[in-house]
């Protein structure tokens, strides 16, 4: 369904992705984890055609994303940083998105889920960071796309919204979506992720389930297992 083969990307001779291979065959939640600056956002941007790789291939339903834009209709992408024209009101941003992407079938549902009704007439720039992120989420999920790419969707969300969002993602997973997510919210990963890809220094250092990682590292929690992955790698790079 979604395949990444031998992907390389450098920015001005600084290597970021050094040969990434990934395969997503079944619907479900796939978490791309790793420390800051390790290339998670770059990887998602390559999938969206926003950044071109130096080498390698990304294909969705057997078609390369490098030469064709049509596949993007099947994807909803949540950028890590929402850059909207910030003088526009929330309702105008939603309208602008619809103008660009077509009618949103789940607009009212998302406005309600994210508690945005009272913010619709406010300018984006006057919203708190958390509310801006809710607008970002609403414009992403108001389309019922089979593939969803989420770059740190939980950043800045309050605990109630975070809980609602987790429940919503669970429902979306049960509806058979392909959800690719980068996040530092380990609780969400433990509850929802079917597979983890752990990215470090441009390579995938672990691929498997949360339980497989916990067993492999012989610990009780995902956070501990992730910490061990990082420490182990530091030791091996220093030797
Ligand atoms: N447009 C760019 N130009 C130059 N360097 C970039 C650019 N985008 C990202 N980088 C660098 O690439 C590395 C990976 O960034 P990013 O993909 O944002 O990582 P992550 O999402 O895992 O935090 C970082 O060192 C970052 O500074
Ligand atoms: Mg990022």
Q: What report would you give on this structure?
A:
With 239 residues, the chain is of the alpha/beta class. The protein has a single domain (2-238), classed as P-loop containing nucleotide triphosphate hydrolases (Rossmann fold), CATH 3.40.50. 37% of the residues lie in helices and 26% in strands. The protein has helices at 40-47, 90-101, 107-113, 129-141, 159-174, 186-192, 210-217, 222-238; strands at 2-11, 14-24, 28-33, 55-60, 63-64, 75-78, 147-151, 178-182, 195-200, 203-208. The longest helix is centred in the last third of the chain and has 17 residues, at 222-238. The protein is globular. Residues 40-41, 80, 151 line the site of magnesium ion.
- CATH architecture field: 3-Layer(aba) Sandwich
Give the CATH H-level superfamily: P-loop containing nucleotide triphosphate hydrolases
The secondary-structure class comes to alpha/beta
Largest sheet: 6 strands, mixed
Mean pLDDT: 93
Query: What's the CATH C level?
Result: Alpha Beta
**Helix proportion:** 25-40%
Largest sheet, spatial ordering of strands: 6-7-8-3-9-10
In CATH, the topology is named Rossmann fold
The dominant shape is: globular
Unreliable residue runs: none
Rg over CA atoms, rounded to whole Å, is: 18 Å
Which ligands does the model contain, each kind named once?
A: adenosine-5'-diphosphate, magnesium ion
Query: How many domains, in number, for the residues?
Result: 1
What topology does this entry show?
Layout: E1 2-11, E2 14-24, E3 28-33, H1 40-47, E4 55-60, E5 63-64, E6 75-78, H2 90-101, H3 107-113, H4 129-141, E7 147-151, H5 159-174, E8 178-182, H6 186-192, E9 195-200, E10 203-208, H7 210-217, H8 222-238
Parallel strand pairs: 3-8, 3-9, 6-7, 7-8
Antiparallel strand pairs: 1-2, 1-4, 4-5, 9-10
Residues 11, 16, 34, 36-42 line the site of adenosine-5'-diphosphate (ADP).
């Amino acid at each position: 369904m979604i395949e990444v083969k031998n992907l390389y990307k450098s920015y001005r001779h600084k290597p970021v992705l050094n040969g990434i291979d990934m395969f997503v065959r079944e619907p479900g939640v796939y978490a791309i984890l790793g420390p800051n600056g390790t290339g998670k956002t770059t990887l998602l941007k390559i999938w969206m055609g926003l950044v071109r790789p130096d080498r390698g291939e990304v294909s969705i339903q057997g078609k390369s994303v490098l030469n064709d834009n049509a596949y993007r209709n099947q994807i909803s992408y949540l950028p890590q940083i929402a850059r909207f024209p910030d003088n526009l009101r929330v309702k105008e941003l939603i309208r602008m998105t619809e103008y660009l992407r077509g009618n949103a079938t789940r607009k009212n549902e998302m406005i309600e889920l994210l508690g945005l009704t009272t913010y619709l007439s406010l300018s984006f720039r006057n919203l708190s960071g958390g509310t801006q992120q809710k607008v970002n989420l609403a414009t992403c999920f108001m389309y019922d796309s089979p593939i969803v790419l989420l770059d740190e969707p939980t950043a800045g969300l309050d605990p109630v919204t975070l809980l609602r969002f987790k429940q919503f993602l669970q429902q979306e997973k049960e509806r058979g979506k392909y959800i690719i997510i980068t996040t530092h919210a380990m609780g969400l990963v433990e509850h929802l992720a079917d597979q983890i890809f752990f990215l470090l220094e441009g390579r995938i250092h672990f691929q498997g389930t949360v339980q497989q990682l916990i067993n492999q590292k012989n610990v009780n929690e995902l956070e501990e297992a992730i910490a061990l992955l990082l420490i182990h790698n530091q030791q091996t790079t220093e030797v």
